[in-house]
Design goal:
It is a single chain. The protein is an alpha/beta fold. It contains 15 helices and 26 strands. The strands form six sheets. Strands 3-2-4-1-5-6-7 form a seven-stranded parallel β-sheet, with helices on both faces. A six-stranded mixed β-sheet has the order 12-10-13-15-25-24. It has a five-stranded antiparallel β-sheet with strand order 23-22-19-20-26. The longest helix has 18 residues.
Length: about 550
């Protein structure tokens, strides 16, 4: 049976394990593509906000999170059948994942950097609005075959589902001839979900190469593997010259902080000098150079105009997939939803505004750090995850917005917070023995720990007595993930409060009741995946609509 063809050229970058160099290689490839004038869309497998933010900043395009487990709205089970591999994005995928992939494949506008207020089409002839991306670049997570139950949801599983070829990243640090056994094992392995269907590998890249002598040894060792498998060795990436990306307790330091210190041109040259990008792009079915003009004629990289320089960090407009035009929504005025968005709150899936738009809502942003009140005309407020612990003093100092939020809560405005947003809704946050005031909308407190408090896929069953869940006849399930260092106080919820979710792991095992709600304000540690929680958002928007009606607006 022929391999399925994706709607757009692309590749999936999978590694032998965590710390194999996937992220560094992905960022270098995105920089090199931009230098060549190619328009890339990027994505991250699994629930990783920070890597996706790096992708968005380096492409100027929204970066999706692709996940085969979180995209479904159903009760989890250890007998849950894996998605059928090998059909490509046109079939065999759940509706949620199809919608995410469709957004990734949709036409986009090239970003403009700097002051463009006086720009015209005549002064910017190289800017092409609404063009198709040249290539999709998907960065995997963990090891190639690591994922959910029995390896479903892994990077390899996602590549097979989407019909995209794999670039295998081999961590060759401290390894010589043994790299051949490592490569052969990964290339020949067939997990149960794959059946007899072979995985399609684009090529191999070795990272953590220590010296030219080490590179020669690796090349000689992998030559027989390449000959037998037909999978070429495309790159030998030296440790020297690779950027060092700083990390903190939830992963990498955010793009807005780390990217100013990264030499993007040097990173692009690192990829060009040590990886055969022409062959890589050809095997991915993509152009190797930019299209010089709208008629798609090719040009030499030396002669082609470069794409505009990208900003150091992506703005909300470029981080999110756009929602549908409000004018097309059957004449109904969309609900206005306020999204907390600043240095403290930036962990939001790129698809959420698009999902809310499809559900007849518009998103506007505001800053709990700087603003004195939420945007006018809002029907509800959403506080995503982030790093409130890094900005606790500034949060505590902004008493004006706390007063405004309490006034809105007293009027019954729906407010919902996730993880860092949940922390903000609480009374206080304890850091190294010092207590900082949060918004105080929920009578709870938490403390920042030194180790992970929770990490993993989560499915949440809404409590039946929640007004949101009581509006639907069938149980309300959402899927997402949990990852935080903060620990909520151990005391039971006060009498006027109730939990939100009955949390379960990916195999359906009950973990605990989670979250707190009081009146119209609710928060939880659970990060909801937009396409795994559409019913929840639809019902929550119903509460927002009822609030507007009660206000007479």
């Amino acid at each position: 049976m022929p391999r399925p063809q994706p709607s757009l050229p692309g590749l999936v970058i999978g590694g032998t394990g965590s710390n194999s160099g996937k992220t560094t290689l992905t960022l270098a490839l995105l920089c090199a593509l931009h230098e060549r004038g190619l328009v890339a869309r990027a994505a991250k497998t699994g629930p990783d906000y920070i890597d996706a933010a790096f992708h968005a900043a380096l492409t100027g395009q929204p970066a999706a999170n692709l996940d085969t487990w979180m995209c479904r709205e159903a009760a989890p089970s250890p007998t849950e059948r894996p998605l059928r591999a090998g059909c490509g994005p046109s079939c065999g995928l759940p509706a949620g994942l199809k919608r995410v992939f469709a957004r990734m494949s949709a036409p986009c506008s090239l970003p403009l950097a700097g002051d463009t207020t006086a720009a015209t089409p005549d002064t910017l002839p190289h800017i092409l609005p609404d063009i198709l991306p040249d290539i999709l670049v998907v960065e995997g997570a963990m090891g190639l075959f690591d994922g959910g139950h029995k390896g479903t949801g892994s990077t390899a599983h996602l590549a097979a589902l989407l019909g995209l070829p794999l670039l295998l990243v081999l961590n060759a640090g401290g390894m010589g001839q043994s790299v051949a056994a490592l490569a052969e094992g990964f290339l020949r392995h067939r997990p149960a979900w794959a059946g007899t269907r072979p995985l399609h590998f684009l090529g191999m890249v070795c990272t953590h190469v220590g010296s030219p002598r080490h590179a020669d040894l690796l090349q000689q060792s992998l030559a027989p593997v390449s000959k037998i498998s037909g999978v070429p060795l495309l790159g030998l990436m030296p440790r020297q010259g690779a950027p060092s990306l700083p990390a903190r307790h939830l992963g990498l330091v955010e793009a807005r902080e780390a990217l100013p210190a990264v030499d993007r041109q040097a990173l692009a040259h690192w990829a060009e000098d040590h990886c055969n990008l022409d062959l890589l792009l050809q095997r991915a079915g993509a152009a190797t150079l930019r299209r010089a003009s709208p008629d798609h004629t090719a040009a030499s990289i030396n002669d082609a105009e470069k794409l505009p320089e990208l900003p150091q960090d992506a703005t909300p407009a470029s981080r999110f997939f756009p929602a549908a035009n409000s004018a097309t929504r059957r004449g109904k005025r969309p609900l206005r939803i306020g999204l907390a968005w600043d240095e403290a709150f930036s962990f939001c899936y790129a698809d959420l505004p698009a999902v809310l738009g499809e559900l007849k809502a518009d998103v506007v942003t505001f800053s709990p750090l700087r603003d004195t009140a939420p945007p006018p005309g809002c029907a509800g407020l959403y506080f995503p995850g982030g790093y409130p612990e890094l900005h606790a003093a500034r949060i505590a100092a902004n008493t004006q917005i706390r007063t405004a939020l309490h006034n809105k809560a007293a009027q019954g405005m729906p407010m919902y917070g996730e993880c860092g947003g949940y922390m903000y809704l609480m009374r206080s946050l304890l850091i190294n023995g010092q207590q900082y005031a949060m918004s105080g909308l929920l009578p709870r407190s938490c403390a920042l720990g030194q180790t992970k408090a929770a990490l993993g896929y989560r499915a949440g069953l809404a409590h039946a007595d929640w007004a949101l869940a009581s509006t639907t006849a069938r149980p309300l399930w959402v899927r997402g993930h949990e990852f935080h260092y903060a620990q909520e106080q151990a005391d039971p919820l006060p009498a006027q409060c109730s939990p939100l979710w009955q949390l379960h792991d990916s195999q359906g095992r009950f973990l605990r009741a989670d979250g707190c709600r009081m009146g119209s304000v609710a928060g939880s540690w659970l990060h909801c995946y937009p396409e795994g929680s559409r019913r929840f958002w639809r019902l929550w928007l119903g509460l927002c609509s009822a609030y507007l009606s009660a206000q007479g607006t």
